[in-house]
């Protein structure tokens, strides 16, 4: 069932990797990160030695039984021979089943241990210890551990990427009914990564994965039916798939606040990418820490929030969050008081759950008119935590907080009107407050809006709107964490690992991942696809991103058709895409490109006046376009002025002048070369 030789190879690879990892490279960062309670290596060793002892004692018992059997044979005791044979056979079967059960239990325990280590790990070495446990559990036939190992090999976790080995594991798992393996094989087939490019086979894999409950497969099928990718476009089918996933996501958000993930666009300029606002630069973080320790209250609250939920590339660290909030609260910050109340209300590693303490801090913040504190008091009264349930008081506090623009309070008001909690049901008011909260990205508000549009509750039913809203909720799932790992892999130069992760997210319908995958493919730095397949696949992904409203992708499609990248040259199609980007999104680059095509009559009717107008619009739209537009307009005006003068208005007078023979076929460029220095001199004199 399991490829043992492959797993042994994986163990060897991981063992070598652990030995060769240079932990010193991460020391600087790791010193600043909180080290929570971790599973010690001694605990793992004790557990493994316990397993070895069990195996040793089991071997001793087997040896004794074998010895006893030999003695019985030697003495030739044949009393009730047939019955003894039956008993012996049953005993052997029982022992075999017991051994198999012990073997399975060992694998389960190792897998659980690995999960625990992985969840609590803060260093690269600890994560690799977790994967060693997964490898051992996989060798014992644990399917979940095998899935973990296959994922690690596919995505290149810890610098070990072996797509061929990953596919072998996935195929083995798929035969055992693993829906996760079905999804992975569908993904690889859809891109032709390590497998034959086959969209029909991919669709089959996704269908089986979805039937088995894999939410990634459900999202992928939802996106395919929404967009009509290799299936007939069907909004209702897309709605059913997205709703399944959104219901799960909403349930997790109701239990605990989700962690938003930053989605960095690789298409941004390199200088912006290196200090991307989505990821906090380490030097800037150190500077913020310095300011916080010096008493900057606003920075203290900001750092507390970042550590509370793990934002901007920082790890979630409740101890650091509490540290900064306490400092700011001592200085009188109402926000800090409210966040401390929130921590006590929910309970975490740094503070125990305590309703009375939560009430105290929420009240302190609310007395200063703080929206978060008012919302916190509303929650206590709504759920009856530390105080009797009082919907009237809850409504009062939610309304006050909502008036101050706090989206969570707006959602709670909407929910009270939607569910009729303590008040009459009012779907119109529910819709109003859900909509207000959704404008700030409140996930549960978006979910309930989708629910209302899907069922036509309080609003005219709209399948398309419901699907778009459900899609937004689904994209908040834990799988979005791959955006961070993919980005860091890209920054570290691990292009193949980054591409595989972005490509999976792109298949799930994430627009940012689609443009990032296309950007990497366009660079031709990846090695997991043949070079000749990269431009066609990039064009496909640019097109999917453009359909979702990415104007940069729309311009890129125009470029591909203009230059013939991954497709045949088609000026008319290029002009169509440039027109969409220029007219709908007012993109300066598209305006400039379209102006050039009008100037030269490429794919469209030549129109100098329209070209001139588009050049001017490009300059007005973007300051960056001023210089290119200046030279383009100078060339256009000079060329056509000289042609008008020399070849139309004064044809009879200047008939003797043969510029093509005298200066050459590119005489217009020669004249422009003379005019440009003259204009520069005039501009200098003017400024002087």
Topology, please?
Layout: H1 4-20, H2 24-32, H3 41-75, H4 81-120, H5 124-139, H6 143-155, H7 163-175, H8 179-191, H9 199-211, H10 215-227, H11 235-255, H12 270-274, H13 282-293, H14 297-309, H15 318-330, H16 334-346, H17 355-366, H18 371-383, H19 391-403, H20 407-419, H21 427-438, H22 443-455, H23 463-474, H24 482-491, H25 495-507, H26 511-523, H27 531-547, H28 551-563, H29 571-585, H30 588-600, H31 608-621, H32 626-649, H33 659-662, H34 667-687
Helix pairs in contact: 1-5, 4-5, 5-6, 6-7, 7-8, 8-9, 9-10, 10-11, 10-23, 11-22, 11-23, 13-14, 14-15, 15-16, 16-17, 17-18, 18-19, 19-20, 20-21, 21-22, 22-23, 24-25, 25-26, 26-27, 27-28, 28-29, 29-30, 30-31, 31-32, 32-34
Pfam family, one: Sel1
Family: Belongs to the sel-1 family.
Keywords: Signal
Give structural notes.
- This is SEL1L2 adaptor subunit of SYVN1 ubiquitin ligase.
- Keywords: Signal.
- Residues 1-23 form the signal peptide.
- By secondary structure, the protein is mostly helical.
- It has 34 helices and no strands.
- α1 (4-20) packs antiparallel against α5 and α10 (215-227) packs antiparallel against α11 (235-255).
- Residues 15-41, 43-52, 271-276 and 652-657 have low confidence and may be disordered.
């Amino acid at each position: 069932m399991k490829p043992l030789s492959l797993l042994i190879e994986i163990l060897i690879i991981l063992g070598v990797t652990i030995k060769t990892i240079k932990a010193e490279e991460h020391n600087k960062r790791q010193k600043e990160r909180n080290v929570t309670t971790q599973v010690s290596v001694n605990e793992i060793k004790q557990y493994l030695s316990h397993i070895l002892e069990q195996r040793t004692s089991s071997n001793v018992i087997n040896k004794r039984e074998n010895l006893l059997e030999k003695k019985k044979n030697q003495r030739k005791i044949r009393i009730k021979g047939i019955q003894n044979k039956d008993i012996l056979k049953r005993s052997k079967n029982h022992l075999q089943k017991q051994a198999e059960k012990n073997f399975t239990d060992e694998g389960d325990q190792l897998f659980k241990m690995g999960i625990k280590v992985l969840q609590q790990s803060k260093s690269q070495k600890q994560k690799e210890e977790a994967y060693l446990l997964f490898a051992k559990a996989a060798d014992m036939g644990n399917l979940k551990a095998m899935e973990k190992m296959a994922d690690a090999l596919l995505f290149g976790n810890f610098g070990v990427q072996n797509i061929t080995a990953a596919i072998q594991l996935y195929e083995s798992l798929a035969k055992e009914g693993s829906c996760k393996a079905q999804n992975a094989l569908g993904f690889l087939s859809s891109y032709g990564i390590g497998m034959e490019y086959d969209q029909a086979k991919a669709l089959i894999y996704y269908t089986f994965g979805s039937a088995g409950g894999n939410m990634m497969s459900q999202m992928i099928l939802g996106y395919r039916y929404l967009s009509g990718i290799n299936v007939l476009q069907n909004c209702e089918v897309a709605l059913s798939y997205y709703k399944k996933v959104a219901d799960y996501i909403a349930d997790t958000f109701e239990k605990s606040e989700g962690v938003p993930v930053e989605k960095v666009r690789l298409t941004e300029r390199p200088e912006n990418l290196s200090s991307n606002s989505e990821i906090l630069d380490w030097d800037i973080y150190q500077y913020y820490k310095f300011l916080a320790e010096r008493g900057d209250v606003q920075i203290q609250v900001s750092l507390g929030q970042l550590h509370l939920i793990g934002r901007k590339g920082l790890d979630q660290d409740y101890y650091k969050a509490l540290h900064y909030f306490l400092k700011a609260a001592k200085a009188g910050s109402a926000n800090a008081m409210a966040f401390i109340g929130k921590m006590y209300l929910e309970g975490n590693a740094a503070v125990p759950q305590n309703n009375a303490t939560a009430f105290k801090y929420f009240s302190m913040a609310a007395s200063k008119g703080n929206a978060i504190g008012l919302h916190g008091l509303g929650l206590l009264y709504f759920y009856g935590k530390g105080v009797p349930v009082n919907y009237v008081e809850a409504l009062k506090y939610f309304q006050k907080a909502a008036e101050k623009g706090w989206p969570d309070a707006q959602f709670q008001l909407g929910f009270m009107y939607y569910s009729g909690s303590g008040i009459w049901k009012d779907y119109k008011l529910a819709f109003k407050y859900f909509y207000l909260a959704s404008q700030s990205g409140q996930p549960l508000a978006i979910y309930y809006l989708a629910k209302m549009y899907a069922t036509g509750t309080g609003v005219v039913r709209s399948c398309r709107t419901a699907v778009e809203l459900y899609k937004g909720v689904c994209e908040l799932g834990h799988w979005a964490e791959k955006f961070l790992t993919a980005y860091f892999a890209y920054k570290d130069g691990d292009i193949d690992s980054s591409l595989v992760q972005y490509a999976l997210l792109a298949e799930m319908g994430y627009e940012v991942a689609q443009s990032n995958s296309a950007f990497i493919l366009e660079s031709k730095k990846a090695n997991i696809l043949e070079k000749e397949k990269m431009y066609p696949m990039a064009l496909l992904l640019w097109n999917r991103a453009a359909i979702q409203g990415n104007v940069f992708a729309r311009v890129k499609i125009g470029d591909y058709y203009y230059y013939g990248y991954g497709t045949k040259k088609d000026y008319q199609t290029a002009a169509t895409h440039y027109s969409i980007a220029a007219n709908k999104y007012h993109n300066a680059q598209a305006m400039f490109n379209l102006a050039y095509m009008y100037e030269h009559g490429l794919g469209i009717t030549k129109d100098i006046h329209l070209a001139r107008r588009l050049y001017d619009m490009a300059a007005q739209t973007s300051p960056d376009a001023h210089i290119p537009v200046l030279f383009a307009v100078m060339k256009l005006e000079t060329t056509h002025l000289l042609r008008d003068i020399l070849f139309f208005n004064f044809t009879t007078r200047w008939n003797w002048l043969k510029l093509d023979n005298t200066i050459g076929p590119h005489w217009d460029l020669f004249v422009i070369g003379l005019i440009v220095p003259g204009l520069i001199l005039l501009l200098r004199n003017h400024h002087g």
